[in-house]
Structure formats: C-alpha cells, structure tokens
C-alpha cells in the first residue's frame, strides 16, 4: 500500500495507521522564503547526519534536528508582526477547533489540538482505519491519509471562518508540517508541546485555562 506521497515535488512518508503531530499555518504567518530556507537548512543537516559515520544514534540525532526546526518555526509564528492573526477572533478559533474535532472517530483518534492566532497544532492517530488483521501491505479500502484529512480541515474551516468573520481571500498556507510519531516518548513530547503552546506564548498560566485547546481523556 502506498506510503510515500508527493509534497512540493518531494517524496513524503506517511505511515499507514500511524500517529502524526501536525502544524498548519495561516497564509501569511511566515514568509515562504524564510520557511523554505529553514527547510533547506534541515535537509542539509539531515544529509550530514546520514553521511557522518561517527554518529552512533542517528535516530536520536534526526529527532533532535526536527525539534530544533519546530522551535525555530514556532518562534517565527509567535513573533509580533503586521501579518494577519485571524484566530484572535473567538468565533474563528472555535470554528477551526470544531473542524479538527469533526473527524475524530471517523478518520483518526484526536489526541490533542490547539488553535493559536495564526496557526494550529494537532496530534492524530490513524490506527482506527487499519483492520486488526491487516498484513501490512494490502490496500485498505477507503483509507484516507493525512494530506487528505488536512485538506478537509482547511477547506471546511476556511469557508466558515470567512463567512462568519466577513474576511475574504486565502486563509491557509499550502500543505502542512507533520512529524511521524516514532515512540510513546515522542507521543507524549508532542502532546505537551501542543497543549503548552498558549502557555509558552504567555496567553495563560495553565493550558487548561485556554479555550481553544483539546486533550483526549485517558
């Protein structure tokens, strides 16, 4: 079954039934040239890790590099700027959170989500779409991958946000930034990274006080 998809003409891995930490930004949240420069920097660093035979734990080195990329991107997203912050309006933020929750139990288990002023984070587990007797290679009928689901979230929320707030034009940037969850430790790191986003931005003292955050019980 297909697990590699093209994104900006680059092969992109999306494991079947995997869990992902996803970030989606508004259309002008970060200038594209800056994002592309960060991505190129990451690609070169990853290549250096693979080529360096003295690095014993390459999996850990790659994980640390991805965390550094996320931190740099997050700093740019929270920087004061003249760019639009559509989700500062409560109606818009609630629409987006509801749209993420809409597909919980249909395409994925939603584990955590957070709507910030110009971007969103969510942690989703796609294992519910995989039959218990799946052999790991056969085609799964009607399987909906991450890219399609992100498209559903962006499409539905874009229309409703524009309608309810009176804004016009493009809401979301192209694509998304996603991380394949490798382990239980990585899962918990991603979950708390998402939940603590409004705390890190100094909007609240506790994530539980932020109205546009979701955490799955249990």
Q: Unreliable stretches, pLDDT < 50, 5 or more residues?
A: 4-12
The major sheet is characterized as: 5 strands, antiparallel
CATH-defined fold name of the largest domain: Alpha-Beta Plaits
Give, in order, the helices and strands.
EEEHHHEEHEHHE
Strand order of the largest sheet: 6-3-5-4-7
Number of domains: 2
Mean pLDDT score? 85
CATH architecture of the largest domain: 2-Layer Sandwich
Radius of gyration: 18 Å
First-residue to last-residue Cα separation = 31 Å
Beta-strand residue fraction: 15-25%
Task: Write up what this structure looks like.
The chain has 218 residues and is an alpha+beta fold. The protein has 2 domains: 4-28 and 85-215, Transposase IS200-like (Alpha-Beta Plaits, 2-Layer Sandwich); 30-82. It is 41% helix and 17% strand. The chain contains 6 helices and 7 strands. It has helices at residues 32-51, 58-78, 90-102, 146-165, 184-195, 197-200, and strands at 4-7, 10-13, 19-25, 109-115, 119-125, 177-180, 213-215. The radius of gyration is 18 Å and the shape is globular. Residues 4-12 have low confidence and may be disordered.
């Amino acid at each position: 079954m297909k697990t590699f998809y093209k994104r900006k003409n680059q092969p992109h891995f999306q494991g079947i039934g995997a869990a992902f930490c996803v970030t989606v930004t508004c259309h002008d949240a970060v200038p594209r040239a800056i994002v592309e420069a960060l991505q190129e920097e990451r690609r070169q660093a990853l290549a250096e890790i693979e080529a360096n035979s003295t690095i014993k734990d390459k999996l850990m080195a790659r994980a640390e590099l991805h965390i550094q990329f996320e931190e740099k991107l997050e700093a740019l997203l929270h920087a004061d700027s003249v760019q639009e912050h559509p989700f500062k309006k409560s109606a818009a933020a609630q629409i987006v959170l509801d749209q993420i929750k809409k597909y919980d139990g249909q395409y994925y288990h939603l584990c955590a989500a957070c709507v910030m002023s110009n971007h969103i984070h969510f942690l989703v587990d796609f294992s519910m779409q995989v039959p218990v007797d799946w052999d790991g290679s056969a085609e799964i009928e009607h399987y909906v991958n991450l890219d399609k689901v992100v498209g559903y979230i962006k499409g539905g929320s874009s229309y409703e946000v524009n309608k309810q707030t009176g804004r016009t034009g493009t809401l979301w940037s192209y694509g998304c930034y996603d991380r394949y969850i490798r382990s239980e430790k990585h899962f918990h790191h991603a979950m708390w990274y998402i939940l603590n986003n409004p705390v890190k931005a100094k909007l609240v003292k506790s994530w539980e006080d932020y109205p546009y955050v979701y955490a799955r019980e249990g």
